[in-house]
Design goal:
It is a single chain. By secondary structure, this protein is α/β, with parallel strands linked by helices. The chain has a single domain, classed as Rossmann fold (3-Layer(aba) Sandwich). The chain has a seven-stranded mixed β-sheet. Strand 1, helix 1 and strand 2 form a beta-alpha-beta unit. The two termini are 15 Å apart.
Length: 197
């Protein structure tokens, strides 16, 4: 049976866990390198990106995540997770994992008070439009080679992208009742498992 890890060092990992549990998916809260061993995919949740990266170093888990990504394990970063997956940032810190061919700007849409919601068209999950929740959201400043844009805002800014086994969203799907992006990630994992057979 499918098992998805959720990085649980900081941030809103509990909301992702609840959504996956409601989809009858086994979950593991990941805090240590050995907890990455028997999972099929990993979610890096929203939270404070600088704190999460510091804790990845403290728990000595950063290199283990990079190795898993390089072996093809699907990884999805939401908000802070999107920052952590990037190749580089417009900010001086934190140092991202350099997994996804993107340049990201933290808090690009403004502070907490500037949080907003918008209906987004996402062909990969079909109709109706998806209600995106943006809280101190990061922004893609550059999108490089092999990165597919799956969704944009009305202002043409990309907010959901995929690069092979990596998925990144600047919004918070775990804060809605709409499970379609989680289902899309589950399908990514199932396809990866199928391709390994």
């Amino acid at each position: 049976m499918l098992k998805i890890g959720i990085l649980a060092v900081q941030g809103d990992f509990a909301e992702h866990k609840l959504m996956l549990t409601n989809l009858d998916v086994n979950t593991v809260e990941v805090r240590l390198p050995n907890q990455l061993e028997n999972i099929d995919g990993l979610i890096i949740p929203g939270g404070e990106s600088t704190t999460i990266v510091q804790l990845l170093d403290i728990f000595d888990i950063k290199n283990a995540i990079v190795k898993k990504a390089e072996t093809g394990m699907p990884i999805w970063g939401t908000c802070a997770g999107m920052i952590i997956l990037a190749s580089s940032l417009t900010d001086s810190r934190p140092t991202p994992l350099n997994l996804m061919n993107t340049v990201v700007s933290r808090n690009a849409f403004g502070r907490q008070i500037d949080s907003f919601e918008e209906d987004i068209k996402i062909d990969a999950i079909g109709e109706p439009k998806y209600r995106g929740i943006f809280i101190r959201a990061p922004m893609f400043v550059e999108i490089g080679k092999n990165v597919e844009v799956l969704a944009k805002l009305k202002n043409n800014k990309a907010v959901l992208v995929r690069q092979k086994n990596l998925l990144a969203s600047s919004f918070h799907p775990e804060l809605t009742s709409d499970t379609r992006i989680h289902e899309y990630f589950i399908k990514m994992i199932e396809n990866q498992i199928q391709n390994k057979k």
